[in-house]
Amino acid sequence: MSGVTRALRLGALRIGYEVRAYFRQGDTVFFTFLFPVVMLTIFSVSFSEASFGQTADGDDITAAWFFLPAMLAAGVLLSGLQNLAIDIALEKSNGTLKRLAGSPLPIVSYFIGKIGQSLVTGTAQALVLLLLGFTVFQVPLPEEPERWLDFAWIFLLGVITSAILGIALSAVPRSGASATAVVIPITLVLQFISGVYLRFSDLPEWLQNVAAVFPLKWMAQGMRSVFLPDELVALEQNESWDLPGIAIALLIWLVAGLILTRLTFRWIRRDS
Question: Is the pLDDT of residue 74 over 90?
């Protein structure tokens, strides 16, 4: 068996292990998997009488309809960046990575397991959000196949980019105990400035420009392009969904994350 084949096989096996380990951690499941579901429910109920615009046919855009794309984007960020940054920092701290370093497991297989976990859990989370929005809050889902194709590539690129950035960010916390305190404020601030909890068009222009530096703004914009009616494109920067710009921004962050991971990832901390 070639080295590449062996690494891929072990990586596939590692995905199953990582997913099982993920769902055994109640706090992780709540703050990464269920948190967007809870927030969508809260916003949908709290603003049930509000209108966030109208379609060309005169139908009101409900809170659930408006916030569903934002929660899908937030779920991608939480399943990838937040989850992996905290998880890997804890594994460094409790000696798991040190033990893996002495095992035959290739580092590529370890990364495949982590990214695969983000993809599996992120997909499950997206399905729950879409099912909740459609069945409970009567959010109309797109009927055009091209919109679902856009959703597929935005979601896949977003998950992979977020996962790679999460691996890179795991080098920042000094210990597993401080990982949550370091990572969660970063993801929380990004959600507030990127149009997840607030309407992006209501933010000051300078803050919109700051948010545009980071990937979550582009993921949220991409999700809005899929699930919101075209009438709301006027609320976006430059009044455009800018799908090529979304792809370019996420690819830039993906490459940056790969470089940072290559420079910073160690089985153990340098100062251990």
Answer: yes
What angle is formed at CA 17 by the lines to CA 177 and CA 81, rounded to 5 degrees?
50
**Do residues 115 and 163 lie in contact, with contact meaning Cβ atoms separated by under 8 Å?**
yes
Task: Write out pLDDT tens, residues 85-133.
Answer: 999 998 888 888 888 877 888 888 999 999 999 999 999 999 999 999 9
Distance CA 265, CA 268 (A): 8
Do 93 and 175 form a contact (C-beta atoms < 8 A)? yes
Rounded Cα–Cα distance for residues 204 and 62 (Å): 24
Q: Rounded distance, CA 52 to CA 64, Å?
A: 10
- 60: phi then psi, degrees, rounded to nearest 5: -70, 140
Tell me how far CA of residue 75 lies from CA of 28, 69, 99, in angstroms: 13, 10, 31
Average pLDDT over residues 199-218: 93
Nearest-angstrom CA–CA distance, 174 and 166: 15
Q: Lowest-pLDDT range, 18-32, 177-191, 205-219?
A: 18-32
**Residue 211 to residue 116: CA distance in whole angstroms:** 27
Q: Count how many Cα atoms sit within 13 Å of the Cα of residue 260 in the half-sphere of its side chain.
A: 18
Give the Cα separation of 73 and 106 in Å (integer). Answer: 31
Extents of the domains making up the chain:
3-264
Output phi, psi for 149, to 5 deg.
-65, -40
Residue 158 in contact with residue 215, Cβ under 8 Å? yes
Average pLDDT over residues 183-206: 92
Backbone CA torsion sign across 61, 65, 71, 73: negative
Dihedral over alpha carbons 110, 112, 118, 120 (to 10 degrees): -120
